[in-house]
Known about the structure:
Blueprint: E1 5-10, E2 13-18, H1 20-25, H2 32-43, E3 47-53, E4 56-63, H3 71-80, E5 86-88, H4 93-103, E6 107-109, H5 114-126, E7 132-135, H6 141-146, E8 149-153, H7 159-164, E9 167-169, H8 176-209, H9 216-225, H10 227-244
Parallel strand pairs: 5-6, 7-8, 8-9
Antiparallel strand pairs: 1-2, 2-3, 3-4
Helix pairs in contact: 8-10
Amino acid sequence: MPGLGVRAAVNGRRLLLGRPQLLIEQGLRLAENLQVADGAQTLAGQTVVGIAIGDEVTGTLSLEDVLRPEAQAAVSKLNSLGIRTILVTGDNWATANQIAAQLNIGEVYAETLPQIKVEIVKRLQAEGRTVAFVGDGVNDGPALATADVGIAMGIAGTDVAIETAEIALLADDLAKLPHLLTLSRQAIRAIQQNLVFSLGVLAGAVGLTIPGILNPVTGALLHELSSIPVIANSARLIGLRERAC
């Protein structure tokens, strides 16, 4: 059940694994000690997953997110590049706020189901923003497909996320995100420069041909030589990649 949990039948008995709210919606009652544990763990920034066998809630699993070592530096770099960073997660608000505080992210959306993530992306796009969505889970698939650019974490990502996204970070390194953005901007800038240069050479050649200064032979030579600066300008991107990796 996307964004809620897992339901299965084992040896004829129902098995539920998911948010405590899911267990309640399925007609099950959490024991008082489990409710206390759920509340305490949620306040501690942990995600609580309830377990039910048949009609009985048997316990909970407590999961705690650990920041990737490179996460803080990556977000800081993105912010310095003028990128608006937003945390969108299906985890509870306590966990989301705790992670956001460590990453210095001011805009947070927590307890979001897959369709809510899509709505957030569409709302940002309606504001005229270009949205890049980074995710690795099944629940991120719809948002990755909706965003202008979907970026999946290659090693840790699920098959659904990798297949849906336009870009997969095979190194599974968040530090590649700022480099990816910088490289993309440099590539667009190189394309624009090459286009302006090529059109300038073409216009100059036409201007020299009209009075007869440029003949077919010298025109062909100029055309071939003009490709050298274009290639050299594009080759700069190779050096940028080598310095960043």
